[in-house]
Design goal:
The complex is a heterodimer.
Chain A (H helix, E strand, L loop, with lengths): L3 E4 L2 E5 L4 E7 L4 E9 L5 E8 L4 E4 L2 E6 L4 E6 L8 E9 L5 E3 L3 E6 L1
Parallel strand pairs in A: 2-11
Antiparallel strand pairs in A: 1-3, 3-8, 4-5, 4-9, 6-7, 7-8, 9-10, 9-11
Chain B lengths: L4 E3 L2 E4 L5 E6 L6 E8 L3 E9 L2 E4 L8 E7 L2 E6 L8 E8 L6 E2 L3 E5 L1
Parallel strand pairs in B: 2-11
Antiparallel strand pairs in B: 1-3, 3-8, 4-5, 4-9, 5-6, 7-8, 9-10, 9-11
The chains are: A mainly beta, B mainly beta.
Chain lengths: ~110, ~110
């Protein structure tokens, strides 16, 4: 059974710093990996989708990497801003399945 | 593209009443997922459809819950009769051939 763990569970950093969120998964037979953010009381917003054949994806200040062999992904946020404060969720879809397996989440707070 | 559209955004109902939540998929997407989110349990998959066919309903908590896809672009989740413990935020999400999920904004259900 796929298990997805995110470290740290919570992170507070001053505005302007670069930061890395970590995600690890136990079953490397993934179809894709997707990062979401969720603001309090809101829905999930997709940030980046990495297919299993890809190593990384970038969007603006965000960069996500994927290393299937080690079962890891990182989400790099450059020049953090208070608006980046949210809970970040790493999710995977395994081959032979369509269901998302959610990570444990990282609650990020950017201090102005 | 308007994204995944859910209605209503908020629903307050009395215990015992029937509640119907609605979801419109993104055009061209062929999989539909219903999730429930609570503080205690996080995000739980209730049911998902592929090409209008229910594939996995193992997450549906009880017979009081039912879901339908009358056509390729629309789904309903019905709770009858509703109970206070059904209070949660209900999300639907859609995808096309596992090409990444898009979530709706959710319906916040309160049963009093």
């Amino acid at each position: 059974k796929q298990e997805v763990t995110q470290i740290p569970a919570a992170l507070s950093v001053p505005e302007g710093e670069n930061l890395v969120l970590n995600c690890s998964f136990t079953d490397s037979a993934i179809y894709n990996l997707q990062w979401f953010r969720q603001d309090p009381g809101k829905g999930l917003t997709s940030l980046l989708l990495i297919q299993s054949s890809q190593r990384e994806q970038t969007s603006g200040r965000l960069n996500a990497s994927l290393d299937k062999s080690s079962g890891r992904s990182t989400l790099y946020i450059a020049a953090s801003q208070p608006g980046d404060s949210a809970t970040y969720l790493c999710t995977v879809v395994n081959f032979g399945n369509e269901k998302l397996t959610f990570g444990t989440g990282t609650r990020l707070t950017i201090i102005p | 593209d308007a994204g995944v559209i859910q209605s209503p955004r908020h629903e307050v109902t009395e215990m015992g009443q029937e509640v119907t939540l609605r979801c419109k998929l993104i055009s061209g997407h062929n999989s539909l997922f219903w999730y429930r989110q609570t503080m205690m349990r996080g995000l739980e998959l209730l049911i998902y459809f592929n090409n209008n066919v229910p594939i996995d309903d193992s997450g549906m908590p009880e017979d009081r819950f039912s879901a339908k896809m009358p056509n390729a672009s629309f789904s309903t989740l019905k709770i009858q009769p509703s109970e206070p413990r059904d209070s949660a935020v209900y999300f639907c999400a859609s995808s096309k051939d596992r090409g990444g999920y898009t979530f709706g904004s959710g319906t916040r259900l309160t049963v009093v």
